[in-house]
Structures are given as structure tokens and as C-alpha cells.
Amino acid sequence: MHPAITHVLQYFAYAHLPEHLQAISRDFADLAQKTADRAPDSQETTVALRKLLEAKDAAVRAVLPAR
User: What interhelical angle do 19-38 and 43-62 show, nearest 10?
Assistant: First the structure.
């Protein structure tokens, strides 16, 4: 696996999150890993993972209490 892909994958870790946020993040982490395993080592795969990371971050923020 290309180092750029493994670099992005590290940001899908969710064990450190509270349980209710893990529930949101887990599905994104699973999809990111499947994508990395099945797609070729290419710039487009890295872009896809980065966009998925953006979506995951937004989904997690959506369930955080408003400040």
C-alpha cells in the first residue's frame, strides 16, 4: 500500500472517541479500509480517502453538542 494511503488511513482511528462518536466513525473507518484494500495505489484513491475523511469529520461534528 502506498505511504500516502496509509497516512490518510491513520485518521480513521476511532478507539479514542467516546462510544457515541465511535458508532458514527466506525462505518467510515470500515469503508476507508475497504477502499484502500480494493482500489489501486493511485492519487485518486488518496483523494477518495481524503474526501471520505472530510465526510467522517463532518458526521462526527454533527452529533457534537452545539457550543
Answer: 170
Q: Which cell goes with 39? A: 482500489
Whole-number CA gyration radius for the chain: 12
Query: Residues with Cβ < 8 Å from 21, sequence gap 6 or more?
Result: 14, 60, 63, 64
**Cα gap 46→32, rounded to integer Å:** 10
* Residue 65 predicted with pLDDT over 90: no
Using alpha carbons, select from 12, 47, 57, 15 the residue that is nearest to residue 32.
12
> What's the pTM value of the predicted model, to 2 decimals?
0.90
Taking the CA atoms of residue 1, residue 33, residue 29 and residue 4 in that order, the dihedral angle to the nearest 10 degrees is 20
